[in-house]
Amino acid sequence: MENQPGANRLQANSIGLAHIIFFVVAAAAPMTAVVGATPPAFAFGNGAGVPGAFILAGILYLLFSVGFTAMTRHISGAGAFYAYITRGLGSPAGIGGALTALLAYFAIQISVFALFAVFVSGFAASLGLDLPWWVWAFAGLAIVVALGRRHIAVSGVILGLCMIAELVILLVLDLAILAHGGGEAGISVSGFRLSEVFGPGLGVTMVFVLGSYVGFEATAIFGEEASNPDRTIPRATYIAVILITAFYAFSTWAIVQYYGPDKAQAAAAASLEGFYFAPMQALLGGWVVKLANILLITSLFACLLSFHNTLNRYFYALGHEGLLSSHVTKVHDDHGSPHVAGLVQAALVATILGLFALIGADPYGVVFSWMSALAVLSIVAVQIMVSVAVIAFFRRDSFGRSPLVTLVAPVLATLGLMTAFGLVWSNLSMLTGSESPIVQAFPVIVVCVAASGSLLALRIKRVQPELYARLGRAFD
């Protein structure tokens, strides 16, 4: 029976495959990832090998998706990572994973709000309107909350339009480079040669590359609202990973062709901001550069809207589990959205942004850089837990699935993600541009958050055994 709005359940069959893909790709913020994240990967990493590094990351997340999507048909509701970890490893690990996921999503929201404010502030200043960055951050938050309380399909349409605009302008640049015949070296397979991909600096490159995938795992959180979720969620996950990987790899390969494999690293190091805008100016004209700057803002806004909707559903799921107040499970009578959860998490975001503003933190050098590093570290930690949970879940009952799906792929994904966690950890100073003890403590913070969740679960088991017995099964 379909869930009806107003019954404290999200509306079933509200969104289809395309909507979910829009949410996931928008969370990856293609324009921001390509123009903002890949130049430092070129400059400080393995140079021309960046396109191949995206292929490696894509393979890693496809391996992760094999077990993740196989488990999807056994998980219902909007619990996402929390439900997966709980079913595989038990409630202590599940609650620990849930808190770590919340840390990741809050951190990425805070970081993107700061970056959004930086770009909007710069654009507004060019028009003669000079206001503090936090004014634009709060304005963006208000618009995101207003849209987040609407029917989920409304956000899906907005995200789809933003995503298409981002992809189109970057693809136009890529095709213009190819039509131009590349740089002095011409068109070649540079960027994918093994000697380039596995050259010195691959570890640093992977730190920036992995951050470009944050949010792809959010497919599962829309399971309660998806039409035919057993098929839609796995398809959306695979398509999203393949689309993100192909787009990033193609765009970075094209820029290597423009500068040439021997000059790409030096060009990025000389001007991180102009690495993409310079060829855009030369091949397409100044008006395209202005349009791209506007699309950077819409890209960041789409990312914020996507993560806002994701986090709303996390709060909603934890409310149904009895881990948060039941008020966050309330669904809007007209729009079928978890609007109370949206207000609660928006209040938390506003509080954190307000604290950063009060202490005078630099929106880019501190708020964006630090919070994005914390987000990547946290989400990779949760993904490791999910991969281990998949292995444990199918060890009890394979449900007739091949060991390649239930064991081999999840084990490879776990090893790859553990390596990724180590790479991010060892390169925190470069990722944040800071040697602060707070930054160096991020791995400890992530572990402590996960441990606190486990301790909370054990306390619930002792004082509320009935609630503990229901954990992970609120949507069954």
TrEMBL record:
Keywords: Membrane, Transmembrane, Transmembrane helix. It is a multi-pass membrane protein. GO terms for biological process: transmembrane transport. It is found in: Membrane. Residues 19-426 form the Amino acid permease/ SLC12A domain. Its main location: membrane. The keyword Transmembrane helix applies. GO terms for cellular component: membrane. PANTHER family: AMINO ACID PERMEASE, AMINO ACID TRANSPORTER-RELATED. This is Amino acid/polyamine/organocation transporter, APC superfamily.
